[in-house]
Amino acid sequence: MEILGDALRRGQDPKLEINMSMMGLKHVANRIVGNAMIPSITEDERYRLTAAEMFSGAHAVYFFDQLHTVAEDSITFDLLTAIRIYTRVRQITFLASLMQPSSEVFDLFDRVIILNDGNLVYQGPRQDAIPYFEKLGYRKPKHLSTGEFLQEVTTPDGAAYLQPGFSRLSVEEFVIKYKSSDTYKDVLRVVNSSELVQQLWVQGAPPLGVEFDEYRYHKDDGREAVSFRVSGVREVDGSLVDVSMDHTTGVERGDKVVAFGSSMGPLQYVDTFSSPRRLLDELSSLTTKGTEPVRLQLERRFREATGVPRNQFSKGYVLGLKEEVSLLTKREFNSIWRNKFGLQLRVMQVLTMSFFVGFFLFRVHPAPDQRIMNLFRTGFFVSVINLTMFNVGQLPALMSERNIFYKQKAAHFYRPVSYLLAKFFGNFPFSLCEAIVWSIIVYFLTGMSVADGGWHFFVYFAVVLLTALNGSAMVRFLGFAVPNMDKAGLIIGVFVTLFILFAGFLMPRLQVPKYWVWFYYINPLQWAITALMISEYGSGTYSKLCSEVYKPPPPAPLLPQCAERDNETYGRAFLEAGEFFVSEGWIAVALFMLFAWLVVWNCLTYYALTRIQHKKILRTGKSINEEKKENALAKKIDDVELAVNKLSHTAVPVTLSWHELCYEVMIPVINRPRTILKVVSGWGEPSDMVAILGSDASGKTTLLNSLAGRKIVTERLEGQILVNGYPKDQKSFRHIMGYVDRIDAYTPYLTVRETIAYSAALRLGSSSKQKQAYFVDEVLELTELTYVQNALVSSLVNDITFDREKRLAIATELVSNPSVLFLENPTKGLDSSSANDIVKCLQHISKTGRLVIMTLNYPSQRILSMLTKVQILKGSGETAYFGPVGTNGESIITYFQSIPGAPLCPPNKSVSAYAVDLVAGMPFRKSEKDYAFEYSVSELALKNHVQLQQLRRPGRNGEKIQIRSYGASYYTVLMETIMSVQRQYWRNVNYSWGRMLAFLIMSVILGSVFYKLDRTSTLGLNSMAGSIFISCVLVGMTNAQNAIPQTMQMRAVHLRERAVHQTSILAYNIAYTLAEIPYLMVANLIFCSIFLPMTKIATYSASAFFKFWFISLEFYAAVTFFGAFLAVVSPTPVIASVLVPIVVGIWISTAGLVVPRSMILNTFIWVFWTNPLQWALDGLTSVAFYCVLDKPSCLNSNLNPECETDIKACPQCDCPRMSGTNVFVWRQISNIRSLDYGRIPYDMIALLLFAILFRVLTVLAFKYTRHYRRT
Description:
The chain is of the alpha/beta class and 1271 residues long.
């Protein structure tokens, strides 16, 4: 009530405040949720937020999948405690699936459902589960958690709990037993009842405060039966009257008694009593004379809610459309506004490109000169292209946001149309600001027309705004319609190809083939450029008549479009010569078409939101190899034991000891250090399994990383770590250790065997291939992966259960023959059976003479029994226990219970949970003693101190480790890496073969557009030159964009390999270079084989064809490597995706086609010479249009100069000429573009150097980029 009153006083939503208080989120109420790049709330708080989000609704039933998998036990307990209160107060039903719940967590539930292979083996009261299975002969051992026992009892592992005299039951027999039980009959009674009733469970110690009377009723079969119901409730003095979380609801008069029992035994169901007198005696004895708490199952008719509209729960959504749109728009705006990093990227993007275009065309004064007028046309083209492509960088974020939308859509939070409108309205202010900034900077820096009252600026602004909104809408559609970035890159490439081709810039309207003219008229970019052209050149700035400004040759006219157009303004003449519409009415048509496209994109997005859902569905049944495993189950144990005894590679015996370790981290906000580890000591010997236990933030992961020398700042670590008594030399130690990280980053396109063999080849370099293969077989057998050795690693997610992925991580490290194996929480996310299997596998590994050190969270009794030593840390990073485990953890129990005042270990609690909770000092596990101090003064600590002092003696347990490398030669590393990467590319169909499909599609599109185009006209020649330009830009940009997600994916793999010094950065980059080239060669050959014959480009000789192919290959390789470089140097895919359009936009502007080299300002000429696109266009255009003019049939080494313009002077010359002027096509294009055929070798060398440069930069980025560096 205090929370409610406080919320009302502050004008807050009371329901929201209560929800947040119950979920423990009040202290982070005003923080942004954040993501991987913007960490703002902890995993615990994010976990609570997920629950609070769903509990905000007015639902009657809530489902929670894998409640215990992603959170620590303490987090789950706190969350479930809040949920339990919530269910009691709101009278709702909560159903959750659990893995390895602790006793405290398990006891929070009222009923439990146990499944095995999809079969129901028990459903009933939580308290009755243990007695039920005991009746079947399965007894729970002492100090074994109830959850663990119930999870294993019906599996093959449950045989360990079977009592003498009972036979082991199969799953089918468990099902039969359950269906014959009273509990199941009661479930059927409720389910099949013709009356809608509510089942209640209450519990309390006598006196109960309620009275019962007998009543008779008729069962569904017509028979008369006797039962009891509540006849009176005393409002004072009674445990069932008091408010308690043990009651699902309060007891009311008229409630029917269904079952009753004591807290120590199972419920007795009323229907099972044949004698009413005996039923009365049992109930009376239990409720009035007994001393133990009483449990009752009551039944109550459902009452129709009053004061609630009948259609409230029949409506699809709680809010109306208007309220939804308003609320979601506010959320979208806040999401964008608070994403400062994303905003900075957008600001940087628009400012960079707008200032570049503005200064690149700085103060181009309108003048009667076609070259100047073409620069404005270029400015319009660059503007619409950049504004369309600006939002491509948002694709990764949109795709990551899809899962949130799918979750909230499935829960009916809002309508898809509300979400779509909110996306548009929330993003509109930012698109508006981008359009304003771009328009002001570009329009006035370039000196566009300010005549006629300046309304032309507003036309420019309107076109820019609509173009930006269209680009955003297109990307939004792709974000929800396309499954992944690979396919998105392909589709964007096709869209942009068509948009640019028919934008009216590269190919005039009348040059467009008839079968493509339909797309010209619906192309939004064409209408944008048309509107800008008409607005600019129809303005008063260009109002002079051609007769006033046109001066025919000699010299050459500045306005050739004015020829034969004396009565037209030179602006209108320029439009007509470029085959544009000239009437101002077309501006309105253009704006309408842009708006229509905006509607179309949003309609397509709505379709994608409602009909398409890209969600990975995991298989829950048996994997494709499960039968093989079952058939081999009997043989497996023997094979594993054999593998343990016969591992062909023996490890160097290592005793690792750590002495008084201390570690601090600096807290940036308060600029003060925080102690993570404090005077921690311990040791491990060959064949030991040492587990580091502790609560959250106890420093167990930091201790593990400190011992391994991974992911820590060495300078902040104090104390001493010894290897066989010698100070640990990390450069040597890293070659005898294996580290299994919590993040399992492995190449998805290698098989399990290939992944392990690759690690063996690089880390067992001194062994022969045969010995390596034999050792790989042994490791596969030891880790029980033999039967899936030929499965792809990617299938670990969809086809193989999660524990196989853990085994792969272990096998990959084990195959390096480590003496010490470190593992960070190897059982996280696994059920008890899989967790036991993983630790059993580690036990087999330790028996081979290796030391295994791991962190664990509340290991089960069985897992604890497999360990030899444990180190338990308290929250301050101090040791509360280090020593042996003992049989079933007896050594740990004996130690803690010997401490005066320490509580005893409850029989229902595992030893690890007892010990960790005892020293944790958490809110629900009060610790009144300093167990770190108790340990420091204990006899056990003294004994350990003596042993640690002995371990300080160098050489006592082994020789000094001096290994500087794994032994594999650089040639071996290089060749193995090359073969591994080649396999990855071959199997990565989406990338490697999808790219070929993209080349094929673009070649057909470009070839059909420029098919048999007349190159002897000025417009035709410009269009043909533009075809080469567009092929380079679009294919190159698509390659760069596609390389980003691939490199990002493989970056994580290389990060892991680099951390264990498995491969070198140089070998890695050489391998990926050699893998890219063959696919680029084939893809480009496909492109050239279709595009060149269709356009008659470079078809005059085989030499010309292969020169064109080779130059374009160099360019595509350079751009692909540039994309890979951006992916490596950028912390996130978003940054890389934003940088690509910026760089490509600069390359387009300075390549010498849209702006001739002679018109580029000296300030930017360096960009021209450092632009790989310029070198590619120079070489490709020279190859495409070159013709030998000095041959005898033409100019004859300039002995026949009349042939230059007179066709009759050399009738045998076969070099094409321009129609009208008879100038050679090669002469025309070479003069305009400053081409020189003899410069082609220099173009090839320059492109090769660009490709090499980008690979070198990638190597340097791998090595020195801050976000990539890792110890």
